[in-house]
Design brief:
Helix content is 24%, strand content 39%.
């Protein structure tokens, strides 16, 4: 009977696990994304399918075969631990190439019971053709040949290789003419392309160019250098160049009549949005609520987006925080994003009107002014349920008199009131004396200028020893003698040595011998054996002899035989 129950329990548990696994498959989110939203007909692009759980089911990719050629499929499983929670995901990567031009939709791909969202991409006509049957060539293009000051010029160059290359080197183009600002418009991309039935490996790099003044800019060819591997042999270093380009830069047009002080913001599109930390209509007086206003501009860097003025709202205090500046990379270039954050606190109950927000900008495609806006909003601020009531001051003496009707109690109250009045006056007096004492102590005292203190004795002695060594190296006997006597004067201030011979009796060897040799050579008539270099080496270590009288004075022990015995 027990075994049967155990089997039943195990079967139930296995069934429950199966239900849980099936449920996990059902709730797993599927995310689809591509590396580019605009490609040529003969170019490949990458589709990624990401599932937020590690499941064993494969995606249904046959739905892609109607409009795309499929390449090799690869997959990657990832496990991460965040705050003690284990998260698993799985990613499939596949290279696709479109079969026709125009707007093409990547249909929803199913993984288990879930599907991804469809993605629409643009397939362009092939813009580049190889010069003949070239193994390697490079092309470049600009998205516009006429731009405005501070507007984006998107420059792309591509390196096509049908053969292997070695020792590669790429160089961005040089730009002359009007002053420009250059930014990378995303990461470098690698993909496949088929031109004239020949397959090429393509490397693409995009630059965003922002002219800072009107005039004309000239873009020199981009260069690719490499050694080509062909038929098992490697050639010498070859240089491949793209086309050159010229772009006219137009001046900034006049601001619109409705916004005479409009900041100059050229872009392809501009969006305004707002976020609240909580529902703004559930705000009570005195409670803060945070409003985030985001403005994004395609074709513009984030630092060029004008600052938004904090709104003036009657009935609310508004405090602006530091803006957050970021950027995104899209097919049309850089999208700058600026987020302004405001803390808003209602100061009383009632309706508060947040005014409409308008940002004028210049559309570089239609060449006209447009206005991005957020509508006005009315917030109902709830008044506090219990308002703080400050009671009026009460004279305790008269209150006691009225309540008791007793003259004695009134006198006691007056006496107490006078006592606290005198205590307050005493505290005020002490506080005033403290202020005066602090002022007196903090005054700038006139101080007599003091002479700088002389350097320590050991530093002065080191200076004379250094001078003596320098003189000895130069065989300057007089300089050695003078420097060492000055050193001795500092060493024995009460009984300074008068000669080199005297000094030799106060130091240990080898300096003592060298001093005696110096003394003898100073008074000899012929050549002496004194060597300045040897003397300089002896000065590296000086040992001073301690006299017996000093030992006797400093020793705490009595003599072995007292005097007079």
């Amino acid at each position: 009977m027990v075994k049967l129950n155990g089997k039943v329990i195990r079967s139930a548990l296995l069934g429950l696990c199966g239900i849980l696994v099936t449920h996990t498959h059902a709730i797993a989110d599927v995310t689809a994304r591509v590396d580019r939203l605009s490609v040529d007909l003969n170019e490949s692009f990458v589709l990624e399918l990401i599932v937020d759980s590690n499941i064993d089911m494969e995606p249904g990719l046959t739905v892609l075969d109607d409009n795309f050629y499929r390449g090799q499929l690869s997959q990657l499983s990832n496990t991460s631990i965040i705050n003690g929670q284990i998260r698993r995901s799985r990613t499939w990567t596949i290279a696709l190439m479109a079969k026709a031009t125009g707007k093409q939709e990547i249909p929803a791909v199913a993984v288990g019971n879930e599907k991804s969202q469809p993605i629409t991409i643009t397939i362009n006509e092939p813009a580049n053709a190889p010069p003949g049957e070239a193994d390697v060539f490079i092309t470049s293009e600009v998205d516009q040949t006429e731009a405005y000051v501070q507007s984006q010029i998107l420059y792309r160059f591509k390196v096509y290789r049908a053969v292997a290359t070695r020792q590669e080197g790429r160089r961005d183009p040089g730009i002359t003419g009007a002053e420009v600002l250059i930014e990378r418009a995303g990461d470098e991309r690698s993909y496949q392309a088929v031109l004239n039935d020949r397959e090429y490996n393509v490397i693409e790099r995009a630059l965003a160019i922002y002219p800072q003044s009107s005039g004309e800019i000239s873009i020199s060819p981009a260069r690719f250098e490499a050694r080509v591997l062909r038929d098992g042999r490697i050639t010498g270093r070859k240089v491949f160049e793209s086309q050159a380009h010229t772009v006219s830069v137009l001046p900034i047009p006049a601001p619109p009549t409705d916004f005479p002080d409009a900041a100059w913001l050229p872009a392809r599109d501009v969006h305004l949005s707002e976020e609240w930390s909580r529902e703004p209509n559930e705000v009570a007086a005195g409670e803060p609520v945070t409003r985030k206003v985001t403005i994004s501009a395609l074709g513009q860097i984030e630092t060029q987006i004008p600052a938004l003025e904090p709104p003036v709202v009657e009935g609310m205090n508004v405090y602006a925080d530091k803006p957050d500046l970021t950027r995104l990379y899209e097919a049309e270039g850089i999208r700058g994003v600026r987020r302004d954050q405001y803390a808003m606190i209602g100061i009383r109950g009632g309706a508060a009107e947040i005014p409409q927000l308008e940002v004028p900008w210049w559309d570089i495609e239609t060449r006209e002014w447009r206005v991005a806006s957020l509508p006005a909003r009315t917030i109902e601020i709830d008044a506090p349920e219990v308002e703080a009531v400050i009671p009026p001051p009460v004279d305790r003496g008269y209150a006691a008199l009225e309540n008791s009707g007793s003259a004695d109690q009134a006198e006691v109250a007056h006496a107490a009131d006078g006592f606290w009045k005198r205590v307050s006056q005493l505290i005020a007096g002490v506080w005033l004396l403290t202020i005066v004492a602090w002022w007196w102590s903090s005054r700038e005292q006139k101080r007599e200028p003091r002479e700088p203190e002389p350097p320590p004795i050991y530093k002065q002695q080191a200076k004379f020893i250094k001078a003596a060594r320098k003189a000895a190296t130069a065989n300057d006997k007089a300089g050695v003698r003078a420097a060492l006597l000055e050193w001795g004067r500092l060493q024995w201030p009460d009984a300074a040595p008068r000669s080199v011979g005297d000094l030799s009796q106060r130091v240990a060897s080898p300096l003592a011998e060298e001093l005696r040799s110096l003394s003898a050579s100073s008074y000899s008539n012929g050549d002496s054996s004194w060597d300045g270099n040897t003397f300089a080496k002896a000065l590296r270590s000086i040992s001073v002899l301690i006299e017996d009288s000093e030992v006797t004075a400093d020793s705490p022990l009595p003599p072995l035989m007292p005097p007079g015995l």
